[in-house]
Design goal:
Elements (H helix, E strand, L loop, with lengths): L1 E3 L17 E6 L7 E9 L7 E5 L13 H6 L3 E5 L9 E3 L6 H15 L5 E5 L2 H12 L4 E6 L13 H12 L5 H7 L7 H8 L9 H9 L9 H11 L6 E6 L8 H8 L9 E3 L6 H19 L1
Parallel strand pairs: 4-5, 4-7, 7-8, 8-9, 9-10
Antiparallel strand pairs: 1-6, 2-3, 3-5
Helix pairs in contact: 2-3, 3-8, 4-7, 5-6
Length: 305
């Protein structure tokens, strides 16, 4: 595969994002020996008792967590927020056929669990952050101390994904111009300033950098015979034995993942007796709409468990 790298100057002076970049290299897995540079934010004490892993989704990047990282660090926690390959400051594989669900699980595993050697993790996962992060929880449950699922799901293709998701999937393939900042804006309940919209666009100088943003909606299993369906079914089998604390913190204004929290609460033992919450006034990207509130939910959950 070929790799594109967004020029560093695209990330200069982004509003509310003062974090120093950190990088690890992971194998592409295509047999070529090529390695992908994966970016992550790493804030707070490296020896903190609690490490919070913040996983973004599609088509956002770690910029989405800029409202949450400072209060979590102020509470004494270490925050690690990777950019998935294809997004943010991470390298962007091309062509889009190089993007697969399995590869992204492998890349995230190597970057976070192997290279950063994270343990005792509190996972905060939204959108594709859950589709990938919950696979890691299922495969390596002992690495995770607790989970916060926020506007996410783990589909196997055995359930109707809903009209809102299917509409987004069609739009992502049919629109002549995929305006990433505009997509984020449209899935928020609060107005975004022009400079914030531009920050979400920063990783993508032109359409050649958006291969991942275009391909990710097609990688969500929507039929039982999807290539990722069996692996996700196996993950669900293991999640049904996951006893560690698992909290649902969904917003009240996301048509895409609405109702998925009930599935987690019914299926995952760690959800029992937890203070599941509905965050009012948030859209799909609740970190943007209600980031401080979600950070407070995470901090209180850590304190309580």
């Amino acid at each position: 595969m070929d790799l594109l790298r967004t020029p560093d100057e695209r990330f200069t002076d982004l509003p509310g994002y003062p974090f120093e970049p950190h990088y690890v290299d992971v194998d592409t897995g295509d047999g070529s020996g090529t390695r992908i540079r994966v970016h992550h934010v790493d804030e707070g004490p490296p020896d903190a008792t609690e490490t919070v892993l913040l996983l973004h989704g599609e088509p956002s990047w770690s910029y989405l967590y800029r409202h949450m990282i400072p209060p979590l660090v102020a509470a004494g926690h270490r925050c690690v927020a990777p950019d998935l390959p294809g997004f943010g400051r991470s390298d962007k594989p091309t062509p889009r056929t190089e993007y697969t669900y399995a590869r992204h699980v492998d890349w995230l595993r190597e970057a976070v669990l192997d290279r950063l050697d994270l343990d005792g993790i509190t996972l905060v996962a939204q959108d594709w952050g859950g589709l990938l992060g919950l696979r890691l929880v299922a495969e390596h449950p002992d690495r995770f101390r607790r989970v916060v699922a926020a506007n996410t799901f783990l589909p196997t293709g055995d359930r109707d994904p809903g009209q809102a998701f299917l509409a987004w999937q069609r739009y992502s393939q049919e629109t002549p111009v995929l305006h990433v900042g505009g997509v984020i804006k449209g899935a928020c309940t609060t107005p975004l300033s022009a400079d914030v919209i531009a920050a979400y666009d920063a990783p993508f100088p032109d359409d050649s950098y958006k291969e991942g943003a275009r391909q990710f909606p097609l990688l969500v299993p929507t039929s039982p015979d999807d290539p990722a369906a069996d692996a996700n079914r196996s993950a669900w089998e293991r999640l049904r034995t996951f006893e560690r604390p698992f909290l649902c913190a969904f917003s009240d204004g996301d048509p895409v993942t609405h109702g998925a929290d009930r599935i987690f609460r019914d299926e995952v033992p760690g959800c029992r007796d937890q203070p599941h919450t509905t965050i009012e006034g948030g859209g799909h990207f609740l970190q943007e709409d209600r980031g401080a509130e979600l950070a407070d939910v995470v901090a209180r959950f850590i304190d309580a468990t």
